[in-house]
Structure formats: structure tokens, C-alpha cells
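Z., the sequence and structure:
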Amino acid sequence: MQQLEVQSDLTVVGGGLAGICAAIGAARQGSTVALVQNRPVLGGNSSSEVRVWVCGATAHGTQSFARETGIMGELFVENQYRNPLGNPYYWDLVLLEAVRAEPLITLYLNTDVRSIEAADGEIRSVTGWQMGSEKEIRFVSPVFVDCSGDGLVGALAGAEYRTGREPQSMYGESWAPEVPDSNTLGSTILFYTKDAGEPVRFVPPSFARDVTETAIPERRVIRTDMNGCAFWWIEWGGSLDVVDDNEAIRDELQAVVYGIWDYIKNSGRFDAENLTLEWIGSVPGKREYRRFLGDYVLTQQDVLEQTEFEDPVAFGGWSIDLHPAGGVYASERGSKHWHPDGIYHIPLRSLYSKNVRNLWLAGRNISASHVAFGTTRVMATCALLGEAAGIGASVALRNGLTPSELAHDHFDLVKHALTRADSSVFGVVDDDPANLALSATATASSTLTRPAAEISSGTLPLTTDLGIVLPVDPALAGFELLVDSTGGSLTVELHDPVKPQNYLPAALLDSCALDIPAGEKRWVHVPLNWSPADPSNVFVVLRKTPGISVHTTSTPLPSTVHFAHREPAPEEQWTEQFRAWKHILPREGLCIRLGETTAYDASKVVGGYARPYGGPNLWSSEDLAWDPEPWLQLSWPEPLELSEVVVILDADVQEDLINLHHHRTPFETLPTLLADYTLEARTEGTDWRPIAEVTSNHHRTQRHLLETATQVTQLRLTAHKTNGAPRAHVVSIRAY
């Protein structure tokens, strides 16, 4: 047995998505990182050992323009490119390669942290046992990040925490119980099946549960085409201690899985003769345990009211998603959901311990109430928290600050670090004084100034209310729709979504009734106007009208989104769980003509926001058929010295991506990304000099380091090819 000591700037304990993103985020800030993971693979619940879908702010397509960017966004996009079928082992490789690509990270797999040294309110070291190699490793750092999920490091250090459910009286949360209790969300084990091509017998083990003696067949959906996380409801242990009773919970969950499989194979109710078990989990996927107390506790109201914090560092959008303590045996539904109207902020003050000075937190253990935890717990959100904690920890260390001092007194330091890293934040303006592009003027060879989608791909009858969200910048002066009509009156309404991150009708602005004579493919002018104080979106409602159809297009305008209104089914109730407006026309849109707009202007690439927020926040060229190699140019009045240029492209954050096979998109590379482009620079009166030539790109963010600092007055990006989109898009160009 060897005893080793490892010294680094940062020790990250836990190699799930939160830990991976914390380690990468800190390493890219220049910190040396020891990433300590107690399993042989990275990924936590998303790994091939557990195989839970990586869900996040998109809420399976419920929210609009909500997919994560930053490091989690990189992982989504890379997995889309490498692993379109959602193979869990390829996902493991995506994560492992992302970590190994960072030279400042040292990875310790199979290393279980079991003890710590702490004094005077700080952690001095943590010690782990590396299984297989029989090494006891002591990790010494000035800063630690607990991404372990269960929060063992924080608990051993004496960090204050809660488990179970707080009472309503504590935070005034309507979904909290009146009386506190120790109930948590339970753990899950999943399974996969395959068609063997011939009859396969299944002899159940003696411990398999007879599910016909439970409410499972009546209360849960069971089909032969279901696999993996489609069985998310195989959950148990919420009324136990999910750590102390982990072994018993695993045994019970496996008994349930084998019982369900016995029911599928041997009950005679399913066409399952040729099906066989391909994989069953042996590691319970835990949902909840310790939640530490930071300087701020996120609550139900913060999520649903979308609180505007002074220190936003990440966001969520998943519903508040709570499960009965009885899990798979409960007689009630397996979950209840309350969706916010859009994505919501998470503050830095929830990502560190309030009483252990050098302990950062990320993942499902952050400072949140049980109810708010019901939304922050999903893994893509945990990943954003990890990146924010890793960057925050590195920035604080570099500046000699505690986490609390950084959050309360020097937040601009981490804000600028997050925006420069292209982290996943919204509503945060890039005003970093180090970004020299802020003083440049942006021009382009062409700009989408009078957007129109005129080529019809079909029709959609107005058998229900339809909605379309359009950018308004600086004003809306009417628009045109392509319709078929047998004669009738169409009511059109304008609604303000109110919050820039929301895409639902919130406040009626204006309406009109249009008499539309009979005819096909008729352009109809809608004389509705709006001049908001700031660039905004508007939600247009087309009311249900028999005899009228609107034309659809396969080439929709950038950053528009479409909805249909639905009434609740007889078995549904008008509760917090029901959302009437549902997305329709994915990757399509309505045929429409807008008036003149600056929503896609070249100036959008300088400063501003790096994702949709009150508008597209990107430059779009005219159609490539008209401008086949569009260019975008930054100009400065005086020469300045550049050493790095960052190009942020449009990764279409409306497209819902996922790590394992929940659904599949028809492409491996997002069409809105530029595939080929060149970057050139010059000083006034000289020839253009190449800086970079990019081909076959499938990434959102490209960082171009100049070999030597270069004097420039102009910088030009020329787009040679997209990955399928009809126009060139650029979100941001930054220069340092």
C-alpha cells in the first residue's frame, strides 16, 4: 500500500457532470485541479453505470431557447456529433475526453474520499482510497468543491445542511408540507432490453417482486418498447435514509426490475417472446440527500417568479418535479410538476457553504429548499452549477477572496470570467473591459433587415389557436401571413411575454379582426403595431377559425418559435402542472413577412447577450443564394494589439439535445453553425492577413490564439459554408 500526497489549487470531489464542469471551468481559468471520482467512469447518474437522461432547462422541449451553453453545451453538441444513437458507452468517452483535453486537470478514478482534515472553519485536506491500486491519497488544496451529490465532504467538514422537507412556514412555499419530515426523492435502477430474434425464456429469481400484488400495473405505464429512463418511475427509498439504507434500496429496486420483467415476459399480456434483458443497473441513481446552507437559499418563489438576482451565475428551467415518498409502490402519480414560465436565475450565493470558508458546492447539494431542489437537481442544471462554482472558486483564489467576499463585494470579477468563458448565463451583458471588441463598429456584407419566409411547404388549419413569437426591434409595424380561406373573419392578437426570457403570452397589447375572402395562397396584412422601450419578443395569437389555414415553411425565420393551444383532456385538471401552449412545427415555421428590423443587425455581435433574450441576439446574413460568402467586420478608429479572438456561433439553443436515446434529431451537426469560415485582420491601408481558417466546424465557441500579438484596425470573418442553414449566423465576436 502506498500513501501519496497531491497538491493542487483546487480539489473537486465527485466526477458527475457537476464535478466535470467544475474541474474544466477552473482549469480553463488557469488553476491546477485534482478531480476525484469514486467510480471507474465519469458522469455520475448519466454514465453507462446508471444511464439517466441528462435533462435540463429545456424540460424536454417545454421551455423555449433554453438549452444550456457553456461546458454542458459543449458536451451536448459533441455527443450529438459523435453519438447520434445515444450509446451510453460513447457518452462515457465524450466525458472522459473532455476532461483529458485539459492539461491542468489530474483525474483520480476509483478514489473514494472517506476522511478530511479541517480547522478554523476551513478544509485543509481530504483523503481517499484508490481501489484496485491500494493507494491512500491525501489531497491538499486551498479550495475544495463538493460535487459528490450526497455531500460527504461538506458533512465531514461541519458545513450546515438540511435533509428532508422544510415546513411551509419556513419559506412560505405552497408545495412544502405543513409539518416538516425526513422524506426525500428516492433512488432508481433502470434496465434495457433487446430483441434476440428468437424466443428467449426468462426464469425470474426467487427475490423478484410479484408486481401484480402492487399498484404498479395500474398506476404506471409499461410497454415493450420502453427502455432505460422511460422507466424513471422505478423509484424507492424516499421514506428511508438513501445513504444509510443504500444497500437495501438497491436490493429492493432490483427485485422490482426483475418483477416488472417477469410481468412483461410471462404474464401473457405483452408480445415479448423474443425479448431479452440486455442490461440492468447495479448502482442506484440517487436523487436527493444533503442540501447545504449558503448565504442564500433558493426557494419555490425564486423559481416560479423568476427572481432577478444581483449575482446570477447559472440558470434552470426544468419544472419543480417532486415525487411521492412511496416511489414505485405509491398509489398516486409518480411525479407532480410545476413549470416556471421560462428559465430562471440561480445566484452565486447558493454555491458555497456559509460556515466553511473554502468550500464550494455544485450539483444536487446546493443551497436550496426541498421544493426548489425539485428543479435544480436535473443533471444539465447541475453541470451549469459546476462550471459556475469552478470558475468562481478559481477567480476567488486568484484574487485572495473568500466565496462570500466574491459574491457580495466583487461579483464583477466572476461575471466577466463567466461571460468570457461563454458560460451558460442569460440576461448578463458582456461589458468586460478586457473585451476590446466593445469599442469596435460592426458592419456586414448583408443583413437580414426585412425577414420573410415565403416558400410554402404545406398548410396548417386553424382548428385551434396558434401562436408565433417574433422579434420586435425597434418596432413592429404590421406583418403579413400567407393563408388559404373559404371566407371568414380571423382574430389576431399581440401579447407581451413581459420577461425577456419568456415565450408565453402574458399581457394583451392589441388585437384586430380581419375579413379574409375566399382564395388560396393569399398574403394578408395584419395591421398591428408595437414599439417597446427595449428590443423584445411579441407573442402573436391567431385565433381558431374554421375555413382558414396558414401556410408553413421548412425555412423559418431565425429565433422564431411556434405554439398550438390545447384544452385539458377530460382526465386532466387545470392545475400548476398543465401548460396550455405547446410547441409545434419543430425546425419549421409559418410563412410570414416582417417589416424592417434591426433584430439581426451586425451590431448584435458586439457586447450584449450571448443567447436569445428579448430577441435573437445574433447577426444573420441575407440568404446565401443572394450573398454566398457573407462577411462580418469589426473596425476600430485606432490600431490596437490583439492576442486572442473568440468567435461564438449559433448552436440553436431551441433544439433539444440529450445524451442517451430519448429522441433523435435528423442531423449530427446543428445546421445553424458555420461549417467553414476564415478570420482575417489588417491595419488601415494594408492587405488582409489570415488569422485562422476553420473547416468542418461543429462547435459553438472557437478560440483563436494569435502566435504573436498583432496590431489591427479591422477584423473580418468570412463565412464560406453553413451546416445546412440558409443564412450565416454569428452570435458574438470578442477580441482580447
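The longest helix spans residues 246-266. The longest strand covers residues 701-722.

Let me know what you think.
H.
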